[in-house]
Queue: 2 jobs
Job 1
Amino acid sequence: MPKECSTALPPRAPFYEKGLRFECQAGCSGCCGGFPGYVWLDRESDVPRISRFLGLSEGDFLARYTRVVEGRISLKDLPDQKWNCVMLKEGRCSIYAVRPTQCRTYPFWASNLAARSQWDALADECPGIGKGRIYTQTEIETILDERGAADDSER
Ligand code: SF4
């Protein structure tokens, strides 16, 4: 029997198959404010973790620091302070150790990894791209899985 003809192309390796360098740069808070945006919180993981860290009940935390937008929970931003995230204090994230998944997985978001051109464009605004240690393809894909299909168009 002749070999079956296949029109399917073999899967292509992602542009990040050799890994990507990234490290948050001290003193940079460029993705935490300066423009309106959303920092979405997962109700089951982010909210309890951050509430505990702040020593607040979940209800108090939600009332003081968050807002609901189309049924989703976001940290507030402060229009009178350049739209900075409410957790940004003196240029630093005041909850860095327990920061939301959205922040912890940045910049390894699906939208930023869709193509080399997207990643290179991000490097123009994020000084941490290309610096620090290499995240391997496996690490990057683990982060992508953790972030899931969340909307990337946030902060
Ligand atoms: S929670 Fe922290 S890391 Fe996330 S946007 Fe706010 S200040 Fe930045």
Job 2
Amino acid sequence: MSLFDQAHTYPEIRSEITRLCAGFPGEYWRGLDRQQAYPQEFVQALTEAGYLAALIPEEYGGAGLPLTAAAAILEEIQRSGCNGGACHAQMYIMGALLRHGSDEQKQQYLPKIASGEMRLQAFGVTEPTSGTDTTSIRTFAKRDGDRYIVNGQKVWTSRAEHSDLMLLLARTQAKDQVAKRTDGLSVFIVDMKHALKNGMEIRPIRTMMNHATTEVYFDNVPVPAENLIGVEGKGFRYILSGMNAERILIAAECVGDAKWFIEKARNYAAERVVFGRPIGQNQGVQFPIAKAYAAMRAAELMVADAARRFDAGEDCGEQANMAKMLAAEASWAAAEACLQTHGGFGFAEEYDIERKFRETRLYQVAPISTNLILSYISEHVLDMPRSY
Ligand SMILES: Cc1cc2nc3c(=O)[nH]c(=O)nc-3n(C[C@H](O)[C@H](O)[C@H](O)COP(=O)(O)OP(=O)(O)OC[C@H]3O[C@@H](n4cnc5c(N)ncnc54)[C@H](O)[C@@H]3O)c2cc1C
């Protein structure tokens, strides 16, 4: 019996995911990690089983499940030792299209995204010069008859080489020409194959973990005007509405990571004998694991609350941000406890700990860093003065 069988929501989905993930053991991920290669087979298996279409309504061929179910899927993927970061965005990026796209756009793209025929899992927001200050992005889409011409550069555009479409945020009006800095930003669907033949270039970035992330350059790339989502200049609002979903789902992944680390640490502590007794008999070994467990459980409750609010259509900015922060911290505490419990063996590739350790560290920086969440709570929840 697993340590975490009290996991409540969607038990059938959880056990199906566990079964699917068993086909992708540590050695599969270690091999990819060495090559920084994309887990095609894993993503294909999830696609075929319909999990990446969990949030797409049934009328477009998806499963029409709530965010709570998507959170259970991603949590179990991580708890099984796999890496949902390779494809989690295929679940939620389409939310901008679903909530703000026209009927024609939804008909054109959603059924293909649901079937896996098309991947929409690249999200071009971050730029090298603006960083977290999204309204200062410089990539510009200039209207030219029935198309826009895009120039600029994105960085950290993950999965761009494994996506048919990109959701792109660009300025359509300069920042100094709009009343509010959040105005004048627009969202487009970019057809990657077409763009690659017409001035777009993708350059992979090697990172400390295998994340298929890239820089993307736009040099006079034409994008049809019909690919604009919603109203020109209102794109910032559209991406904000998707960010809560993204934060909740990534928080669920962190809870899954924390469970993986805690289980691994607890098992090793029970079996490793030093000085004639299991190391887990020492409270110095037990306590960091117990602490990480408590932090994970607290984060798990916050994730559940945030997801429930999201599904009910309630405001969930506060809860989504706190869930993301608490879960990322819990997964890191669990990673740290797991590595320390394993002593030298924690550093050996074959235990998978060092790989998961590198992977889970990301979530204190992306998709939003802890400082920015604290700043959100200070300003928007506690009503303290805006600091930037
Ligand atoms: C592997 C990876 C994958 C990613 N995938 C994507 C993707 O698919 N699409 C995409 O658009 N982006 C992606 N990102 C970008 C990610 O969202 C950003 O890295 C993140 O938002 C932080 O921005 P930055 O790196 O520019 O840091 P900066 O904004 O330069 O900040 C650097 C540090 O300063 C702190 N800081 C900045 N301003 C303040 C302030 N006012 N108060 C306190 N602290 C502050 C930050 O918290 C951070 O710790 C990815 C990043 C990584 C590393």
